[in-house]
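hiii, so i know i said id send this last week but things got crazy w the move. better late than never?? heres the sequnce for the chain we talked about at the cafe, plus the structure i predicted for it. fair warning i was half asleep when i ran it
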Amino acid sequence: MAPDISGVMVTTVANADSSGTWGLGVNWSPDPGPQTLCCVIGTNTRFVGGGGSVETITIRSDAGIPVTYFVQSSGNTKGTTYEVFFTVERLE
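okay and structure toks below
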């Protein structure tokens, strides 16, 4: 299975005093072992919109092994929120 993952992430509540980012990461399991990619897409927390990124990646994952995602922050994200939208498409 070779999924194509694309999406966008934006800051919806910003903090001008913050110096952080939010990022979306992906876990999958191709041969020869588990892989993690962070950050597929991300956003800066200083202003609304946050300079959000739009990215597309293609990964290869073993059949029957789930592709999972996570959101993590770095720096100061206090008082900020984000929205993330992504699509996973199976490529054949």
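btw Residues 2-91 form one domain. thought thatd interest u
miss u guys!!
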